[in-house]
Amino acid sequence: MKEKILITGFNGEIGSKTLKELVKRGKSVIAMDISDAKVKIDSVSYINDSILNFELITQIFENNNITEVYHFAALLSQTAYRNPELAHDINEKASRNLIDCAYLHGANNHKLIKFFFPSSIAVYGPRKIDNASEQDIIQPTTVYGNNKLIIEQYGSKVHEKSMSENKGIDFRSIRFPGVVSYDTIPSGGTTDYVPQMIDSAKNTKKFDCKLSPETILPFIGINKTISSIIDIMDLESINSKLRVFNVQEVSFSAKKLSDFLIEKFPSFEITFKEDKNFQSVADTWPSSLNCDKANKYWNFNSEKNFESFMKDMISK
Ligand code: SER
Fold it and tell me: Is the pTM of this model over 0.90?
């Protein structure tokens, strides 16, 4: 049977670009999302359904030769905060189910299925730290952070079991900082003020920032996000028990960003109106991430500084 890749949440910011990249590389993809594709790619098999349809997920694995899974379907931090039960179902229950199905598929077919899970800086906490390493204090205070941590740990556990049996899943995960795209303006996340502020500076000229000017968070551009996912999944194997790696390109405060945008777009007006639901979350997330392990185990590196990072974002 022909080898297939399964992507969930293909309509999202990261999912849509990962799908395009995999298709460009000649892969045969089954793409699933609760919302339908705006533009369809001929070679892709689309499934328009919920990740909570466990019967359907079982059938996908039974009827196809799946070799890799990219699991992007999720609620982001602010949406999860407002809908904790749905977040538990989508972010945790459905993720566990997908890991279990992939494990069974691998075990039954005597192979290892590569499984990618996008984690987040939300697993850190309860205090803000600088240069956070993977094993630093991870006691998340948010629903979303807890969901992510539980799946990081579950995936790593099933990975260990799979390695001892030499069949099942090969779990790989990246803890993403805020992701900044130049062509999509996401909402539902705590870090989304960055793409939103950039878009406002270019277009509407007004923006209310929900975080204090001093708040510093780490970020990565969408291109580096996608290349990191492709790079970590391309490797035959990763010789490390640690399965979850930090990545980032730059860290900056909301003020540094607004000063830069006002200089480039002088009519841009910004107000800082702290919203406690956003501020209390950002205050538990690291101001920067240590990426030494990603560099050591799969050669991640970044040469961006604030200016070159922003130049890419505003020129597109
Ligand atoms: N960027 C995400 C959010 O803000 C965190 O992973 O929810």
Answer: yes
